[in-house]
Amino acid sequence: MKRRKLYQSFTSAFEGVIFAFRSERNMGLHIIAAAVAIAASFYFHLGTAEFLAVLSAIFFVFITEMINTAVEAAVDLKTKKIHPLARVAKNVAAGAVLLAAVYALLVAILVFSGPVGEIF
After folding, report:
1. Most buried in the list 12, 30, 39, 71, measured by CB within 10 Å?
2. pLDDT per residue over 38-82, tens digit each?
3. Which residues are CB-contacts of 78 (< 8 A; sequence separation ≥ 6)?
4. Whole domain around residue 82: which residue ranges?
5. What total of structural domains would you count in the chain?
6. Alpha-carbon torsion 24, 30, 34, 36, what sign?
7. CA distance 54 to 58
8. What is the pTM assigned to this prediction?
9. Could you give the dihedral angle defined by the CA atoms of residues 20, 32, 64 and 99, in that order, rounded to the nearest 10 degrees?
10. Residue 102's domain is classified under what CATH number?
11. Residue 69 covered by a domain
12. Among all residues, which ones are annotated catalytic?
C-alpha cells in the first residue's frame, strides 16, 4: 500500500468529520446543545477548569457519535441482514453515545447549577 502524504491524511480526516456532521441526525442536536453550552459558558464567565470540563464533554459526545457512525457503516458494509452480532455492535456503539450524552448532561448540571441558581 502506498504511503499517503500528511495533508491527504488530514483531508480524509476532515472529510470524515464533515460526513458525520452532515449525515447524522443526532449530530444536529449535539451541535445545538454544544452551542448553548458554549454560549452559557461565556455568559456566566466560567473559569478555565469549568470551561475545559464543558468543552471536554462536548468533544466526548462528538467523538462517540463519530465512532458510532463508523461502526454502523462498517456493519452495514459487511451485512444488510439483521444479524444478532450486527445488532450488538450497533447497540453497543449507540450505548456509548448515550453514556457520553449523560456525562455531558451531568457536567452541565454541575457546572451551571451554581450560576443559574444565583439568578433565581
Report:
1. 30
2. 999 999 999 999 999 999 999 999 999 999 999 999 998 887 788
3. 86
4. 6-119
5. 1
6. positive
7. 6
8. 0.87
9. -150
10. 1.10.287.3610
11. yes
12. 65
